[in-house]
Amino acid sequence: MTVPSGISDTMAVSARDRRFMAAAIRLARWHEGRTGSNPSVATLIVREIDGAPVIVGRGVTAIGGRPHAEPQALAEAGELARGATAYVTLEPCAHHGRTPPCAEALVASGVTRVVAAATDPDERVSGRGYAILRAAGIEVEEGVLAREAERDLAGYLKRRTSNRAHVTLKLAVSANGMIGRRDGRQVAITGEIARHQVHALRARSDVILIGVGTAINDDPELTCRLPGLEDRSPVRLVLDTQLRLPAGSRLVATARDVPLWIATAAAPDDPRRAELAELGVEFLACDAHDGRIALPELLEDIAARGLSTVFVEGGADVARTFLAEDLVDRLILLTGEGSVDGDAVNAPVTRTTIPEAFRLVASMTYGTDQMDEYERA
């Protein structure tokens, strides 16, 4: 790598580290929402060949969660791993199962340097993975693009540190601050490009959640319908305290193809349970508070099943409840250029009324629509 005049070797290496870590973070996104209870992590093995850095091994957590990224990347690199640098988006695991921890696999491979982004909060790992590497004489550089990696790992990190699933609330808002009509008639607020982006966000989520009112009024499928990504549809979850979801809805009709869960406080012997169960629906028994599903406990139950991310696409009532209970971690606003006239529903939040707890992290334009992404500060 040629070092430009006036730039030190240290700065040049740092720029290289950022470049390859950014590539590893992009690779990790390939399997987001598909790795079960494990996070989607990526590893790149990079070594000098003819004076230039070359990726000789790459790996991303396999679908279902095993094998991890490190052994896959090391297997691809083979002997070229000896003396190389490994870029990992999350601290290598340090605990033994039926297979050795990834930190030990890196040691055995002969890599001489490991560059890591985020630290794993799992008490079986936190700091121990780095300690194994350093004890073997491997140089370890921590925290490279840590914030960027943590954004993609937010679901896993939230589940590990707070024992609940991470919540992203998505709202499509018209130019005059509305999200729909009170008569239930559907109105297109955003264009096709923005809607495709929403499908991509679904594909990266473990669970997509709506209230039963939206399920009845809109009769959605809640699947990912982008070509080639149909099999990445998340678990669909409906908040339905009293089991009002019709058996003839499109959600129920596709329950055997894409998992459908209903969070309900209905009695175990409610005959509607048996009818829906016969059609492939699964139930989450929930507590009710003031006639609504108790959301904090629901998010804990979702996390207990090894799921980390919930994408909320519900209507105004569901959105307001999540916001009021301080359960939203990420907020995505899609603002269209048109207005919704007549007896319309006010948006719970707009670009001008973002709660103080959130900060803007990204803004994008999709056709004529604006997408703004906010995270809890």
Account of the 3D structure:
The structure is a single chain. The chain is of the alpha/beta class. The chain has two domains: 9-152, Cytidine Deaminase, domain 2, CATH 3.40.140.10; 157-376, Dihydrofolate Reductase, subunit A (3-Layer(aba) Sandwich). The chain contains twelve helices and 18 strands. It has helices at residues 9-28, 69-77, 102-109, 128-135, 146-152, 154-162, 192-203, 212-218, 250-253, 271-278, 295-304, 316-324, and strands spanning 42-49, 52-60, 85-90, 113-118, 139-141, 166-173, 178-181, 207-211, 235-239, 260-264, 282-285, 288-289, 292-293, 309-312, 330-335, 344-346, 358-366, 369-376. The protein has a nine-stranded mixed beta sheet, sandwiched between helices. Helix 3 runs parallel beside helix 4 (128-135). The radius of gyration is 23 Å and the shape is globular. The two termini are 38 Å apart. Residues 1-12 have low confidence and may be disordered.
Q: What is the CATH superfamily label of the largest domain?
A: Dihydrofolate Reductase, subunit A
Poorly predicted ranges? 1-12
Question: What would you call the quaternary organization?
Answer: single chain
- The total number of structural domains is 2
**Proportion of beta-strand residues:** 25-35%
Roughly how many Å is the radius of gyration? 23 Å
CATH topology of the largest domain: Dihydrofolate Reductase, subunit A
Judging from the principal axes of the Cα atoms, what is the shape? Answer: globular
Termini separation comes to 38 Å
Tally of helical runs: 12
Total DSSP E strands: 18
CATH architecture annotation name of the largest domain: 3-Layer(aba) Sandwich
Strand order of the largest sheet: 11-10-9-8-14-6-15-18-17
